[in-house]
Design brief:
The chain is α/β, with parallel strands linked by helices and 545 residues long. Helix content is 28%, strand content 22%. Among the domains are: 157 residues, ANL, N-terminal domain (Rossmann fold, 3-Layer(aba) Sandwich), CATH 3.40.50.12780; 100 residues, GMP Synthetase, Chain A, domain 3, CATH 3.30.300.30. Helix 2 packs across helix 3 and helix 7 packs across helix 9.
Amino acid sequence: MTEYNIEKTESAYAYPLLIRHLLSRLNAQHSDQEIVYANDRRLTYGEFFDRVGRLACVLKQWGIGPGDTVAVMDWDSHRYLECFFAVPMIGAVLHTINIRLAPEQILYTVNHARDTVILAHDDFSPLLSAFEGKMPSVKRTIRLTDSVDPAMPDSHSFDGEYESLLAQAPGDYQVQDFDENIRATTFYTTGTTGNPKGVYFSQRQIVLHTLGLSVGLTSAVGQGRLHLEDVYMPITPMFHVHAWGVPYVATMLGVKQIYPGRYEPEKLLRLIEKENVTFSHCVPTILHMLLSDPAAERVDLSQWKVIIGGSALPPALAKRARDLGIDVFGGYGMSETCPVLTLAQVDLDAASMNDPDQLDLRCKAGRAVPLVDLQVVDSALHTLPRDGQTTGEVVVRAPWLTQGYLDDPERSEELWDGGYLHTGDIGHIDTAGYLKVTDRMKDVIKSGGEWISSIELEDIALTCEGVSEAAAVGIPDEKWGERPLVLVVSGSDALDLAEVVSLFEARAKAGQLSHWAIPTVQRVDEIPKTSVGKIDKKKLRSQYG
């Protein structure tokens, strides 16, 4: 057999897949486009490009480069976006610190990632002060402030203030090429037992994720499509999986971007209205929070497209969003997958005439974006039929999946057992390729030999008028192993729990739910959430088990 090898001319440019190359069109095509921070500051893309170079110069002047880790503790801002590019540009690793972790967990991640420099907002200055003497790898800290007062806070002595450092830095950073496979970002997963696990991605992986997600978002005919006339605002923290990677996509495309700072429902809705925001993404609990705010009734949301991820989109929440004109649809991924694997953009030809809003499709995890090999398998890793019914574990291969957990080879091997990344989710795929996640393997309720979907129970409870939030968990039962418990939150004192139970009984009578799955229902004042806004079922099982 003849082999054909690619011959490379000595002067040809190999073009490594580096994050800085995502900025290649900004000055030529989008220099006047806007980036807005919390309604207080407006930058053009041209100014943004200059600031990225200046930040890279500051870090290089301090001796930061390959092998160093630069950490950020900030609310969603233009500064954070600048770090998304400037830190990898010099070959260093960007550590996006989860500011909602407990202080001792934050300190653990700083030391585990071996951070060299920390950029921190004034709000986190007291935390840095408490960490002094406990961060052996940290050499310098930079102040991020929204205050007009140049005086440094008393709680921590910074080595410089961000805007002053950029103003003094040269604006002609000379870029250099390096191996596209070097580590570009690190962050830490939440909701696990023990210490958080470090997830990491290379420059090549982030570029490929950006390209794959871009194709997935921009190739839609209409529904769920991202395009140049959109106005993008993330409502997923930038510390969490690069805000799902969409800031990289929006910047590469030259889309107007809005960064809201700290999340406050009224402020988010005001920015949506004032800046004509048309594209966002968030977890279900955040969308519920926004739609429950009285201001939501006064804001026109009919041009707003929203991807819902982190956990399944409840049909009741989707219906409420659709009633307000919001183009809401699901997406799927996890920290270890960079994260986007699927999008539930609606195939209008497949939509049921009896369901004009296509809620069933919108609430699924969706179809794989380009370059994603996603399968549902049995315990022996045999691929299961795509019939929309046969359920198994969701496993995946894609060029942007983390290769393991930082300095944790044992759990890395478990993650990649058999050559596929194991998501820990259970689901099925239909003939059109739509994935529906039915539960997390650790959250499924195992009762009397039957598996009961906690997500299905939550969806049913949320259809009851007066129920604003619901969480289902399995609680120990001496005879049956586990029995289902559904916790509900309601703003109405008139809510009758018997009415909620009757919904489950009606579904069981109609053959849509096993009689075995009819749960005990209990009312609570609130349902605990993780640091990224998901229902904290580990805490619920501990509390009620």
